[in-house]
Amino acid sequence: SATGALAIQIAKAAGAYVATTASPNTMPDGVSKIDFVKKMGADEVINYKEAEWSDVLAGKDFDLIYDCVGEADSVQKAGKIVKKGSPFLSIANHGGQSTDDVVFKNFLIKSNATDLDKLVSMVVEKKLTVPIDSVLPFDKAAEGLQKSMGWTSAGKLIVQVA
After folding, report:
1. For the purposes of burial, counting CB atoms within 10 Å of the CB of 72, is it exposed (0-12), middle (13-18) or buried (19 or more)?
2. Is there a contact between 46 and 19 (Cβ–Cβ < 8 Å)?
3. pLDDT, position 1
4. What are the start-end ranges of the E strands in 17-162?
5. In Å, what is the CA distance from 115 to each residue of 29, 106, 120?
6. What is the pTM of this model?
7. pLDDT given at position 12
8. pLDDT of amino acid 24
9. Helices first, then strands: H and E counts in the chain
10. φ, ψ dihedrals at 79, nearest 5°
11. DSSP readout, 109-145?
12. Residues in the chain with pLDDT < 50?
């Protein structure tokens, strides 16, 4: 997702080790999603079509998980890979519950001028890029929504309104 790609870049800029999942599916430019997230800075990429992320990362004691997918059992699986009491921040799982090992939180955005200024600076310095899947005319907006809901986009879908 574009949100995940932004998170990878921001985490790397903060000095974090980043592990993520991706598929070998190709993006509009022909690059695999695995290669794309590596280009964004991911240190470790798990092909979720071939391996279970919680098994591959078990015992690595991560400090947090940022979830863009929202699978129902992800919070329970997270306990195998994070330090006890670590946050599981999700933008996609709205029914998650904390466990003995993981503190579940929905990640909601609240605008903050200082943070936004930092992001703009990262863009200007070319440390943060927003991946764009495609630009669609307004009459194709429904197709864009279907693409987004079908998990086949690889970046932001832009709808032209004028």
Report:
1. exposed
2. yes
3. 67
4. 19-22, 44-47, 65-67, 86-90, 102-106, 132-137, 156-160
5. 31, 19, 9
6. 0.85
7. 96
8. 92
9. 6, 7
10. -55, -25
11. ----HHHHHHHHHHHHTTS----EEEEEEGGGHHHHH
12. none
